[in-house]
């Protein structure tokens, strides 16, 4: 089965390899590209770092490697460790577990620097602030929207070659809906089943009447398990 993958290029390539291992083919159609924002890091002092995506790696290269780091999941932690950060603690892949991990590891009052992207969600910073942690936010990178769907993806949708689509963020799902409309393949996109990392990710697709399924937990492994036939 051919699977539409709309993640940014680097992430999409990794997903494509996993799809091939499962016997599927990937139609890569990144709707965003990761670029630095150019915003400077906050000048204020901080006690620990929060990292919620491996996309933050380039920005982390200029920070103090002796600071403890709280990473959202294993892949993010691996990217941080590769830069020489030795004190990395790993959550279970979502903002709720990350906020809980920090609350259990540090007393309130410690200042945290969240290295994140534009269009980031309020969590885990909101919960941590409510628990007494000052949180500095550095929007160091952004997922910049592309102008149009790749021609190969448009043709694959138009000719019914796509069996299912994967979605990892609400913003990218929203962009896919808009770009498909602009390319004249909105009805073709709606006809495809859409597998989503969470209900929030699925919302733009539900709004246009597409059929969606949501992963059992917010991890790629759980998302890809939705491709497996019923046991």
Can you describe this structure in just a few lines?
With 231 residues, the protein is of the alpha/beta class.
- Gyration radius, in Å: 19 Å
CATH domain class of the largest domain: Alpha Beta
* Shape, principal axes of CA atoms: elongated
Order of helices and strands: EHEEEHEHEHEHEHEHHEHEH
Which fold name corresponds to the CATH topology of the largest domain? Rossmann fold
Alpha-carbon distance between the termini?
18 Å
Main β-sheet, spatial strand arrangement: 3-8-7-4-5-6
- The CATH architecture of the largest domain comes to 3-Layer(aba) Sandwich
Number of helices: 10
Q: Give the structural class.
A: alpha/beta
Please characterize this protein's 3D structure.
By secondary structure, the protein is an alpha/beta fold. It folds into two domains: 2-31 and 147-225, Rossmann fold (3-Layer(aba) Sandwich); 35-143, Rossmann fold (3-Layer(aba) Sandwich), CATH 3.40.50.10090. The protein is 37% helix and 23% strand. It is built from ten helices and eleven strands. The protein has helices at 9-21, 57-60, 74-82, 95-105, 125-130, 151-158, 170-183, 186-190, 199-207, 220-225, and strands at 2-5, 25-28, 32-36, 48-51, 69-71, 88-90, 112-117, 135-145, 162-167, 194-196, 212-214. The strands form two sheets. The chain has a six-stranded mixed beta sheet, with helices on both faces. α7 (170-183) runs parallel beside α9 (199-207). The radius of gyration is 19 Å and the shape is elongated.
